[in-house]
Amino acid sequence: MTAPSITVNDLGGLASEKSPIRFANFGGLSLCRDVSREVPQASTLSLDEYSDNQTESAGLVSEIYNLLINNNVDATSENVKYQLEAIPLFLELLESPMLSRYESPIVSFDSDGEINAEWLGSGGKSFTFSLNDKGRLIYSLYTPNGRKLFGETRSDDDLGFFEDFIRTALG
Amino acid sequence: MIWDFLKTLFARRSGNSSSPILEHETCRRFLFDKKHFKDSRVTHQAFAVNKNTDNVSVFVFSRFSSEAEYLNTKTSVVAKRKRDCKAEAEFLAGAVSDVRAELSSFLTSEQLVLELDETDYYHHANLDKWPVDKGLQTQIQQALAAKARVI
To answer: What is the chain B residue with the closest CA to A108?
Structure first.
């Protein structure tokens, strides 16, 4: 099955039309969750108004949505294709009991469209993973004076070792 | 346009472009995305490899003759990118050698180099010859970010 993807040009078109927010059916992808509780006035807010009203405390879904609208849209990266099917998997992962106990990571999109989470600690320590729409995870732990490792796994594998990596990065 | 071409040609003939970047020289990367830093810390995404060019663009800040010259270049880059520059990541050129040493078991001798590329701008350089492996790329980005500070 071919993963649905949209280009930033598509997003620009959406934004310029001031479309109402429709998380549940965005770009042909069902996110399978009710976001109306997380995005106030979701049925009436235009994209521009929504972007203007973003705050630090916005939920994960709305943060991802904001990234899709505003991130990577510049003259040098017009062909970014976001891997939208990765988003529900990503949300499921971050909201699992294992990962939700830690501080929220920095969420962004890689230039290849994969969605990324990064826990940034002090002294240059960090742990990050990228998820693609096939459920493949690329992870990397870096500590300046200690562990330096990276690898590949799958979102449906046992990811218990991620806890150790996050603790190492934040510790 | 002709004037710019002649300036570049003259710079190359006079050898400016070929002078190697020394370890103690200060480099800066423009950060166009607020996700590329948090507080005073730089995130690995700040050193994300450009999908179109396969490199990471930086400026050798210490080679600019004045703050005004640097700001003129920055203004020109910002206009070209059509995005605001949110911050800058500053690091010593020697950080690249440090990263190569840290990850020497994964990198070949030809990979990850900092080279001048003054085709479009004076004192511009690229972090080039990145490995293809995404995990290794990420590790390098994290290592560089750890050695950079937000300006």
So the answer is: B35
**B80 CB near a chain A CB, below 8 Å?**
yes
User: What is the CA angle B12-B113-A140, rounded to 5?
Assistant: 150
Q: Is A53 on the interface with B (CB under 8 A)?
A: no
- Choose, out of B42, B83, B134, B140, the residue to mutate when testing the contact with A (most A CBs < 10 Å): B134
Interchain contact, A74 vs B32, CB within 8 Å: yes
* Bridge partner residues of B58 (DSSP): B125
DSSP state of A29: B
Full-model pTM:
0.78
pLDDT digits (tens, 9 = 90+) for A76-98: 555 667 888 899 999 999 999 99
Measure CA of the first residue to CA of the last residue in chain B; give whole Å. 32
Q: Which residue of A has its CA nearest to B143?
A: A142
Which residues are CB-contacts of B146 (< 8 A; sequence separation ≥ 6)?
Answer: A123, A124, A125, A126, A142, A144, B42
Checking if the pLDDT of A142 tops 80, the result is yes
Q: Do B143 and A148 touch (CB under 8 A)?
A: yes
pLDDT in tens, A4-40: 444 434 444 433 333 333 333 333 333 333 333 444 3
Of the candidates A21, A85, A28, A112, the residue with the CA atom closest to the CA atom of residue A59 = A21
Tens-binned pLDDT, residue by residue, of chain B (151 aa): 555 555 544 554 444 555 899 999 999 999 999 999 999 999 999 999 998 899 999 999 999 999 999 999 999 999 999 889 999 999 999 999 999 999 999 999 999 999 999 999 999 999 999 999 999 999 999 999 999 999 9
- Give the pLDDT confidence of A88-131 residue by residue, as tens digits: 999 999 999 999 999 999 999 998 899 999 999 999 999 999 99
Contacts of A124 in chain B (CB under 8 A): 145-147
**Contacting residues of A for B48, CB less than 8 Å apart:** 110-111
Cβ within 8 Å, pair A74-B44:
no
